[in-house]
Amino acid sequence: MQERALSSPEERAINDFRLVYRLFQEIAKVSDRKDFGKSFRARAREMPSLLYEVGVIPALSFMYAKTDDADKQVYRIFVDFVRNIQITPEDSKKLNSTEGGYAAYLYLTLLEIKRLMPEKNMDPSTPISCIDALIGFGRVPVILPSLLMPYLLEIKRLAEAVFPSE
Predict the structure, then answer these.
(1) Which InterPro entries match (predicted)?
(2) DSSP string covering the chain, please?
(3) I want to staple 66 with a disulfide (CB 3.0 to 4.6 A). Which of 35, 93, 102, 151 is the partner?
(4) pTM score above 0.90
(5) How many domains are contained in the chain?
């Protein structure tokens, strides 16, 4: 399905959630632990309010810090999965973590921000460049949580329906 055909935030969320669910299924092939699903569900429940409370840029920075990308490269591994690059069982184990849940949630959030702000040419595979693009963009980051909410609430509903709680 082409992205243009997905006109509503809810439709985009359902389509994007398939990616996260596919990863959950891949991880289940190599591990009985469900840490990725639990973490993603927790992020889907708590991050929408954090976006309102602290603002978009601090919330994105917080999520990126929680991916532990500097040491474990969890975000990079998730992006490889998104790009259909074969990930190793060891990489699957790294994604089956709290950090993996943060990485997936951050990626979906950046993907939706990219759709809402196409003129910024953001690349969700590089969170720092996305955060950089939002800095100095006037009042847009202030209204961004409201624009993101229908998408994020649909992601939350799907995560609560599919993934176990922590």
Answers:
(1) AF1862-like_dom_sf, CRISPR-assoc_prot_Cmr5
(2) --GGG--SHHHHHHHHHHHHHHHHHHHHHH-S--HHHHHHHHHHHHHHHHHHHH-HHHHHHHHHHHTTHHHH-HHHHHHHHHTT----HHHHHHHSSHHHHHHHHHHHHHHHHHHH-GGG---TT-HHHHHHHHTT-TTHHHHHHHHHHHHHHHHHHHHHHHSPP-
(3) 102
(4) yes
(5) 1
